Structures are given as structure tokens and as C-alpha cells.
Amino acid sequence: MLAYELAQQLLAAGEQVEFLGLLDANPVLDPLTALPLGETGHAAVLTTALERLAETGADFGALTRDASWTTLMGAPVPDGAPPEYLRRSLRIAQTCMRAAMSYRPEPYAGPLDLFQAADTPHGRQADLARELRRLCAGRFTVQTVPGDHWGMTREHAAATAAALDSALERAGEQSGNH
């Protein structure tokens, strides 16, 4: 969402945006569930985590190995992470989630490249791309990259980087900047 909004503001300021690439991101629907962000339950996961962290003797590690946590955050919290670090990180995540839930994207006039995780169920991929396409008045390209939402930038980072590099090269050729 941040990249999408930044591109919007650049265009509004009269700047040219030759490339906007979104890595399995969507300013309308959550890429993990294909639901509007307010309907995902992500905020509740973060609130529960903060509450559990405040409890004395709470098994925070077990909570973060739960499927809802790993879906949202990508991995459990490492053993031995300091509670203050976790509190701060969770508050930041909660603030970001609130901002995402209240964001109302405007149509985007520039070119947009969406890099979708191959392991996302096909119907969900189509829903996410369709909603993003509705916002994009310019060139819209979808490219599938290996992995799931988290794995495309972890286990499959090289393949994702190669796809991104190719898209940047094409954008440069189309704009006349080589």
C-alpha cells in the first residue's frame, strides 16, 4: 500500500512514475485471504498477541507458532526474543494494520506490475488481480513468481528478483531509458 500511495502522490505532484511493482500486495484486498482487510481477523491476532505478551508466564512462543500467526507474520517469533522488542514490534504491526484497514485507494493512472505468489490458490489470484486491475487505468501486468506470500521473498528470492529485474528492464525500454 505504501508503494501504491507513494506512486499516487508522485503523479499528483507532476512527476512521472515509470514503474510501480507490487510484490503480492493489494491496496483493496488482503493478499493472504483475498478479503477486505477489516474482515481478515489480522487485527485480532495482533491484539491477542499483545495481551498474551502482557500476561506473566504466558507462552508467547506457542501463540506465535499458531497457524493464524504464521499466516499473518510469516514465521514464529524466535526463542529468546526480548519482551520489550516484541511489544514494540507488535505495536508497530498493529499501527500498520489499522492504517491498512482505513486506506481507501484511488484509481492509479500509471503502469503497474503485480508479482503474484504461485502458491496462492488460482481463484484467489484471479480475485486479487481483478480488484487491482479495476484501480489501474494504465498498463497492468501480472507475473507469477514461485512460492507463497512469504516464500517468494525468502526461499525464492532469486527468482522473484529476476522477474523484477526483467520487468524493470522492460519499463526502461518502454520509456526510452536504457
What does this entry show, briefly?
The protein has 178 residues and is mainly alpha-helical. The protein folds into two domains: 95 residues, 3-Layer(aba) Sandwich (Rossmann fold); 65 residues, no CATH class.
Walk me through this protein's architecture.
Helices cover 49% and strands 8% of the residues. By secondary structure, it is mainly alpha-helical. The protein has 2 domains: 2-28 and 108-175, 3-Layer(aba) Sandwich (Rossmann fold), CATH 3.40.50; 38-102, no CATH class. Strands 1-2-3 form a 3-stranded parallel sheet, with helices on both faces. The protein starts with a helix and ends with a helix. The model has no long low-confidence stretch (mean pLDDT 87).
